[in-house]
Fold:
Amino acid sequence: MRRTLGPGIEVILAPNPGLMTWPGTNQYVLGGGEVVVDAAALDEENARRLHGAAPRPARLVLTHIHPDHVGGAGTLRERTGARVAVHASRAAFPGLAPDDLIDDGDEIAWGDGRLRAVHTPGHESGHVCWYDPERRWLLTGDTILSTGTTVIAPPDGDMGAYLASLERLRALDLVRLLPGHGDPIERPYEVIDEYLSHRRLREAQIADGVAAGIDTIPVLVERIYVGLHQGLVWAAQRTVRAHLDKLVAEGVVVEEADERFRRG
Structure:
């Protein structure tokens, strides 16, 4: 539930395991409780866990606005007075009322370190990874996970933007990734390359399927995601849709009426 990752940084696991969150959401606590990165819903147990590590944080810094990362933001601010920071594109996100709007390259100091915002749209258009240039660690939110792959769900999710974000992260000087779900990743470039290869494979499978006459998303998912858990079918369908949107934009695929597709 609470684990020290290095000098001045801990991870607090939120009690929200599931098919999409795996063991739960990682909530990172920096500087002995000075800064918290992401806050899942503050039920009684999660409030106890976070309070034990960060009784009065000065800042709550968000990677993105999906519920398992932002659900506790309002409550945490009410209870502790923490200032909430999120990407500027999410200034009007319902119920959040952020105190600080973040743009790419902005920095937040903590203890003897700093976090630099790296805007990484794709999974969510306002997604921000947080880079510690001294430690060469990157808090990746949901852009990179240590288990499974990231869902890209249109209309806000964008596959082209996601692939560009992965390429951008690959250009950073990295020794460690700290994902929003799962354990730390000690081989950052290998995992980033695996993510890029996986997405290219899926794109090729989808293009080949359409070329073979498969013209609907559900049938493409059945063909490509063999043995998929039923609870993840919706996620696969949205990610296939994101790939198709990219292929349509590139002229490889044409979308017709009733969400049907053919080769371009």
Observations:
- The helical segments are 44-53, 67-70, 73-80, 159-170, 188-211, 217-224, 233-249.
